[in-house]
Amino acid sequence: MSLFPEAMNNDIRKKAAFDERYQHVYIPKSTVYPYFKDFYINEDANFVYYNAHDYNWCNLNADEMKAVGRYEFLFTLPPVPRRTTYEFRYEVLANGNRGIAQVYFGPDPNNLPAAGIPLDITMRSDDPRTGWEDDGEDMDYNAEVDKRMRNNGFMKGAKSVTDNGQANDSERDYANRENVRRIMWRGTMDPDKTYYLKMKSVLDSDRKEFYMDYLEYCPKEVFDNPNEPEDIW
Predict the structure, then answer these.
(1) Domains and CATH numbers, the chain
(2) What is the pTM of this model?
C-alpha cells in the first residue's frame, strides 16, 4: 500500500482501528472509479486491503492486499536508483486459499512480456519443490539450504519480518507460516524508465485469491556477491 500516495493521503494505510470500514478496505474497480492512479484492476475481480488491526499477522507491516475473482491487475512500480542488474522478488504466505497467476513485467504497460511460467502460490514453504528447511545451528549448512532454495526460485523470508513486531532468532523458521519469497525476474533496469507489474489469474476458479505483502528490488552486487553474501535480515 505504500506504493499509492492516495492510500497515505486519505489515512487508509496502517489504520490501527477495529471499525470494519478500516479493517477491510475495498478498492473500487478501475472500470468503475480509478481510485489509485498507479493501479488498474479489471471488472471480474475484487481487491481488498486488510489493514493493520491484527498485529499477530506475520506480514511486513501487519497488513496485506488481496485480489479475488478472475483477476487481472497492473501496478506502476517505483523507479530504481541506478542502471544495473536487479532481482525482482515477491513475498507470499502461501496456503490452500491462494491461486496461480501469470506474472508480466516490463516498461511498456500495453505490451508486457511474461516473466517465466505461472506463479503457483498454492505451495507451502515446506513443499519439497522449494528446498526449504528450518534454520539450524550449522551456519554453513543453512547457507547451503539458502542456495538450494535460490536455485528453485525461492528464498526464505527476511529475518527482520516478525509476527509480533519483535525480532528474535527464529523469524525465518516459519514452519507453519509459509513465509517465503519468490524470485520472479532478473534483468537490467534503468532509472530513467518506468516499469510495470501485471498479475493475471490462470485458473477457471474465481475462489482462489492473490495475496501481496511486499516487493523487493535487489541489485546483483548484493545477491551475487562472491565476497559477502546477502544479509539474511
Answers:
(1) 5-223 (2.60.120)
(2) 0.87
